[in-house]
Amino acid sequence: MKKIYISIFVLSAFTFTGCADDYLDVKQTETISTDDIELFNNDSGAKTFVTSIYSKFLDWDMSSFGWIGLASITSDDADKGSTPSDTGTDKDVLDALTYNASNPSAESTFNANYDGINRCNQALAILPKLDKADPALRERLMAEAKFLRAFMYFTLVKCYGGVPIVDRVSSIPLSAESKAMQLTRKSAAEVYAFIEKDLTEAAAVLPNKSQYGDAEKARASKGAAYALLAKVSLYQKKWQSVVDNCNLVTGYIISPDYAKMFRLEGENDGESIFEINGNGAVPARGIQGYSNVQGVRDAWGWGFNQPSQSLVNAYEAGDVRKDATIIFRGATLYDGRVIPVISADDPNPRYNLKAYSSAYTSAWETDANIKYLRYGEVLLMKAEALNELGQTSQAIPLLNIIRHRAGLGDTPATSQATVRTAIWKERRVELAFEFDRFFDLVRTGQAKDAFAVDGKVFTVGKNELFPIPASFLLISEGMSSQNPGYN
């Protein structure tokens, strides 16, 4: 009888143990027969394959401690936090930019995204076989899988540069062709081209966010595909493509209250384009440990990912975003919770308010969401691209929309150079703790100087990328090599 394999990323057969606990409740070594696939040959069964991809974003290794360390603690917006003696496994070396090729957070982020990519590939392989499911639904689900695969490859290319492009389920047993596909790094340009292809195909099929029912607002939409295409173009300095794709992101608004966007009442609001949903209610299915590891130490959390003094200093007087982003010791939060003051020399004077859950404050799985794409950033991307195209007068009003929402006046910047700096500054305070700052510093060439201000040494030619995991290179048999500067 023909078998259809439902397994974790095939590289697990070599070295990775991975986690496939929510993927159809099938263990990584098991298969299901073509007879059993009939159990999923209906609308609800078809959705299961894509729901499993979204579920990956709730895992500890995908969106929690390692990712927080890699994409936030490394930046000048955050310090390690916790206590000086608590390294958080590797958060001390991430904070100091002294990590090496054996860094656990770099490895877990790499593996987790390939686990998710494998789920995408399996969905894309199996969905066409489900001929009893609604054809339009199947097409939409395949478009969602392509968007999510593109999202994960964008994470990988930002972090590591060129990576293997695994665009299909590998043969079992593993053929030489499949092995080469999994173990050979492609160039960053090839990865970006693959991302663009997935997103273009997804955008052609996905519905607008407004066409989803209330229970499905967190699913990938046409606007999400175009917004991510704009961001992918931003990283490649394809300025006209940024503008063109931003113009295709329609049906969204700037939420009038910045702070409320990051509370339960602001989840999937009119500004939200794509976010990861957490659920703290039983059965809890939030992002594992996300709120807890960043929570107020000696009150309900571990105290990692502490907002830096550098970030505090970046806010202008009267900017409402500061108190909407940072928990200060001694403050009273919007829900009445008072943050205790421990001592004058407390090593944790600040915390990430965007990760806070009012209803499930100390729970391991909370209702806090991660907003990855929102309309405020679309306006900033468009402003940056227009300014780079020499259309500075058109960029300034977009920048001012964001400033006015923050309670600030018009930008004083008028020249292309000063507007460029103003946009970069605005991105920092607008998107703080939304996992953009480190990558923004790298893509704009600000990293060395910015980290020097924060007392960190950014090594040009090395720290632009994180190390390819040593465990991956060990099995690559020379088909892939390490990024420059890492042993």
Describe what this molecule looks like in 3D.
- The chain is mainly α.
- It contains 19 helices and 8 strands.
- It has helices at 43-56, 60-63, 65-73, 91-96, 104-126, 135-160, 176-183, 188-203, 222-235, 239-247, 290-293, 309-314, 321-325, 375-388, 392-405, 416-430, 437-443, 447-453, 470-475; strands at residues 3-5, 31-33, 78-81, 272-276, 304-307, 326-328, 350-352, 370-374.
- It has a two-stranded antiparallel sheet.
- Helix 1 (43-56) packs parallel to helix 6 and helix 8 packs antiparallel against helix 9.
- It is globular.
- 51% of the residues are buried.
Radius of gyration: 22 Å
Percent in strands: 5-15%
Gap between N and C termini:
47 Å
Low-confidence stretches: 1-32
Q: What order do the helices and strands follow?
A: EEHHHEHHHHHHHEHEHHEEEHHHHHH
Shape: globular
How many extended strands?
A: 8
Helix content: 40-55%
The helix-and-strand class reads mainly alpha
Q: Helical element count?
A: 19
Largest sheet: 2 strands, antiparallel
Task: Walk across the major sheet and give the strand order.
Answer: 1-2
- Mean pLDDT, to the nearest integer, reads 92
